[in-house]
Specification:
about 300 residues, alpha/beta, Rossmann fold, Arc Repressor Mutant, subunit A, 2 domains, 6-stranded mixed β-sheet, two-stranded antiparallel ribbon, elongated, Homeodomain-like_sf, transcription, HTH_AraC
Length: about 300
């Protein structure tokens, strides 16, 4: 069971903590086991909103699959940031060095910076703190106008509510965009992936309110490596193929086939990033060989480049 350990520092913002905690708790409700732990440098943690929180003072033993999150705190600048004792700093560095992921929300990036984890990496924080973060940690590259940044298992997010987007992204990476979308729907939030990651991800096709289309997407998500004829998807959703094509396009701006292909490419990219060959990744996601995967990857990169460059 992977752990999500929140390092609680004084004057933390409740939503910086509660947003990501709710995402992982909801995923656990859906059968994706997560154990949430809350540690601090002292037991009683005052919050910016006046509600005290009780934390553990002993860290659990961590595995590389675990996640450590530092929520942010109230303060117009980093000058009044709560101190980070050497043991907390050591724990953050040790977990990352062992292959684990560390993350911050809002001002929590300062704690990662003090631990040396921002040096040589891209990062972000609340828009009101970005200039100060850049001055405080000149070896870091502060990325502006994004919700979150991922760099070598160091994940930083912008202000307060962006912690939800960060957590949904991590759920999507671990369990697929369908599960992240299901969590977002349960929480009644948008499934935004407006971080400094690929913007053409499958999760962006989930920001709609059509229950029929969500059910079809749930089916595709669970069986995207298999052939899924349009007739079968329509029958499962209780509408005609023509109606399904129309409402799917209206809700998502794409077709069921293109949506399935996006899922396959995203999964293949993940496998390749983990060391798989192009051929083995292609077969793992349902292609007979690497030719189609190669074409789809080229098309995806072309679309991404066009989106960045904008119209001529």
């Amino acid at each position: 069971m992977p752990r999500v350990v929140f390092l609680l520092l004084p004057r933390l913002h409740l939503l910086d903590l509660a947003g990501p905690a709710q995402v992982f708790s909801t995923a656990a409700d859906f059968g994706y086991a997560y154990e949430l732990r809350y540690v601090g440098e002292r037991e009683d943690i005052p919050t910016a909103q006046g509600l005290p929180i009780r934390a553990e003072v002993t860290w659990p033993e961590l595995d590389p699959g675990d996640l450590v999150v530092v929520p942010g705190w109230r303060g117009p600048t980093f000058r009044g940031s709560p101190g980070l004792d050497p043991e907390s700093s050591r724990r953050l560095v040790q977990h990352h060095a062992a292959g684990g992921t560390v993350a911050s929300v809002c001002a929590g990036a300062d704690a990662l910076g003090r631990a040396g984890l921002l040096d040589g990496r891209r990062c972000t924080t609340h828009h009101g703190l970005q200039d100060e973060l850049a001055r405080r940690y000149p070896r870091a590259t502060v990325v502006r106008n994004v919700l979150f940044v991922v760099d070598d298992r160091v994940v930083t997010s912008a202000g307060i509510a962006s912690g939800i987007d960060l957590a949904l992204h991590l759920i999507a990476v671990r369990h697929g965009p369908g599960i992240a979308a299901r969590v977002a729907r349960e929480m009644v939030v948008y499934t935004r992936r407006n971080g400094d990651e690929r913007q053409a991800g499958a999760l962006r096709y989930r920001s709609h309110l059509s229950d029929v289309v969500h059910r079809v997407q749930d089916l595709i998500d669970s069986r995207f490596t298999e052939p899924l004829p349009l007739d079968g998807l329509a029958a499962a959703s209780g509408v005609s193929p023509r109606t399904l094509t129309r409402i799917f396009g209206e809700a998502t701006g794409t077709t069921p086939l293109r949506y399935q292909q996006t899922l396959r490419v995203e999964r293949a990219e993940h496998l390749i990033g983990q060391g798989a060959t192009l051929e083995s990744a292609a077969r793992a996601v349902g292609f007979q060989d690497a030719r189609m995967l190669r074409r789809l990857r080229t098309r995806t990169r072309g679309a991404r480049s066009a989106a960045v460059e904008g119209p001529a």
